[in-house]
Write a structure and sequence with these properties.
α5 packs parallel to α6. This protein has 13 helices and 20 strands. The N terminus is likely disordered. By secondary structure, the protein is an alpha/beta fold. It has a ten-stranded mixed beta sheet, sandwiched between helices. A six-stranded antiparallel beta sheet has the order 17-16-18-15-19-20, covered by helices on one side. β11 and β12 form a beta hairpin. Helices cover 30% and strands 22% of the residues. It binds nicotinamide-adenine-dinucleotide. Nicotinamide-adenine-dinucleotide binds next to loops.
């Protein structure tokens, strides 16, 4: 066992290692290190000691993130200096931080993901039965979550007294990039199948775009099996029989939920690590939070952060060190050396704290598991999985403006759709006519049902009277007439066709 490194030591690594350690000199990776809050410093110290003993070749660059930085007046929990350090590094290894309660603070994780372009969130979830009890001993799933788009774009508006909205943005380049990443990951990690989770039976355009990208790109990987699930039944199947799945790729929100379900099924969220992959720098962290209830007690499980560090070592091109740490960790669990969160009557022999657990992993470096599957990482699993955005579509589709949806805040005449329809019909012309009104997506005019509940938020669709297309001036003239009559239009959405195909959802009855 080696002596503990100072977390602030600028460089570790040696060309002379224990059995199995590299004797050549692979690149040294620059890694920004954030010790975080709560249990963060304890588990980070434990993880760094293991990495040092495993001869990981890292140039460590400590930074401050989190609570103290928020409290010093930085609303996003990060200083300009820390940004510089992260951006000049290959990776950020981040312990969990505590997000202060109350308004005015931004989520540091969301800020890091978006600012650094961390487009892929990769969370391996593997059972460790019988050493960590789980109902699913055969589970070995990797969830690849799109990390930047979807409702997490954070574009929200309150539009009326009763209605708020959140924009769900799904882009073609974003979808293609995450799907391609998932297939590349499967190929380089020796996995046989990628499953797409979407809800394109309801969200035909947004989730439909993601699903189309999946089907198209799957054809480029004939060696990898591919299939798809509607997210609801997919999540149910995952919770019931996770051994059916291998790699799952899914948009941001579904991925957020599904990856937590998958991690929990392995027996403990405390064991999960995750990678946030970007083209320039990538971030690695445990999936759990700062566990303030355990802070300072020396009992937290450092495994989640350690497994995140294993992902990081693979990513920065040190698969040998990654394999040594991972196998030693598996052997330690098999030895029955367990922190309290995973201690169990059947397989625990030594219930230990954070530091003693790290000592046991270090003592096992060079050993491999006997019962659990040993891991072997290869150099092709390393750098190079962060392909640039997909090239532009070869064909630019013909885009035509064929109508407009005007959203109104309207709360008069007992919210009678008939009354609103009668008001709008004469204001539509001469270029346009009112085609329909919907409320919360349900058609209420013409021919609505009195049973339908209506809010103060109305979508009013106008289409051309005679021509195939309309002009932007037709739109302005319509809005001018609506404004003149005191109607509060809160937003408009243009209706486009692309090569004649509607780029908007059709109302009921169309
Ligand atoms: P949490 O994950 O910190 O704790 C949930 C439960 O799991 C607690 O009972 C805790 O004791 C236990 N636990 C967590 N990690 C453990 C470990 N390594 N070993 C043993 N037990 C462990 O979730 P929370 O309580 O909801 O959040 C606490 C704080 O963490 C909040 O401020 C939250 O914003 C923050 N958080 C940060 C991150 C991050 O930085 N990535 C992620 C999630 C939550």
């Amino acid at each position: 066992m080696t002596t503990s490194p100072s977390p602030a030591s600028p460089f570790w690594g040696t060309e002379v290692g224990p059995s199995g350690a590299p004797h050549h000199a692979p690149d040294i990776a620059a890694v920004a290190i954030a010790h975080g809050d709560g249990i963060g410093p304890e588990i980070m110290d434990a993880a760094l000691r293991v990495l040092d003993a495993a001869y990981a070749r890292l140039d460590l660059r400590p930074i401050d993130l989190g609570q103290s930085v928020y409290e010093a007046g930085h609303a996003a929990g990060i200083t300009p200096d820390a940004w510089d350090t992260i951006r000049s590094a290959d990776a950020l290894l981040k312990a969990p931080i505590t997000t202060p309660q109350g308004g005015g603070y931004k989520s540091l994780n969301v800020t890091l993901r978006k600012t650094l372009g961390l487009f892929a969130n990769v969370r391996p979830c593997r059972s460790l039965s019988p050493f960590v009890p789980t109902r699913f001993p055969g589970m070995d799933v990797v969830v690849v979550r799109e990390n930047e788009e979807d409702t997490y774009a954070g574009i929200e508006h309150r539009q009326t007294q009763e209605v708020t909205q959140c924009l769900k943005l799904i882009t073609r380049p974003g979808s293609e990039r995450i799907v391609r990443y998932a297939f590349d990951y499967a190929r380089t990690h020796g996995r046989g199948k990628v499953t797409c989770f979407v809800k394109d039976n309801i969200m035909k355009l947004t989730d439909g775009l993601f699903h189309d990208a999946f089907k198209r790109i799957a054809e480029e990987y004939p060696d990898i099996e591919s299939d798809s699930r509607i997210i609801d039944i997919g999540a149910a199947e995952l919770a019931d029989s996770p051994e059916r799945f291998d790699v799952i790729v899914t948009p941001n929100l579904y991925g957020d939920i599904v990856s937590d379900i998958a991690a929990q099924l392995t027996g403990s969220v405390g064991l999960g690590g995750s990678a946030n992959i970007g083209e320039h720098v990538s971030m690695f962290e445990a999936i759990h939070g700062s566990a303030p209830d355990l802070a300072g007690l020396g009992v937290a499980n450092p495994s989640g952060l350690l497994l995140a560090a294993v992902q990081m070592l693979v990513h920065v091109g040190q698969p040998d060190a990654a394999g040594r740490v991972h196998n030693a960790w598996l052997r330690t669990l098999e030895d029955g050396v367990h922190t309290p969160d995973i201690a169990n009557p059947d397989t625990t022999r030594h219930k230990v704290g954070t530091a003693a657990f790290a000592d046991a992993v270090i003592a096992n470096l060079g050993n491999e598991p006997i019962h659990l599957n040993r891991v072997a990482y290869h150099s092709d699993e390393a750098r190079g999985q962060t392909r640039a955005a997909a090239p532009a579509a070869p064909h630019v589709e013909e885009k035509k403006l064929v109508g407009i949806d005007v959203f109104l805040d309207w709360d008069e005449h007992d919210r009678s759709p008939e009354a609103l329809g009668r008001l709008l019909e004469p204001l539509a012309g001469p270029e346009l006519k009112l085609k329909m009104i919907t409320n919360r997506g349900v058609k209420v005019f013409p021919g609505g049902f009195p049973e339908t509940f209506c809010t103060d938020h109305w979508r009013c669709r106008f289409v051309p009277t005679e021509t195939e297309t309309i002009s932007r001036y037709d739109v302005l003239k319509l809005l001018h007439r609506l404004a003149h009559h005191g109607l509060d239009f809160i937003k408009t959405e243009h209706l486009y066709t692309f090569d004649g195909k509607p780029g908007y959802s059709l109302g009921q009855g169309e």
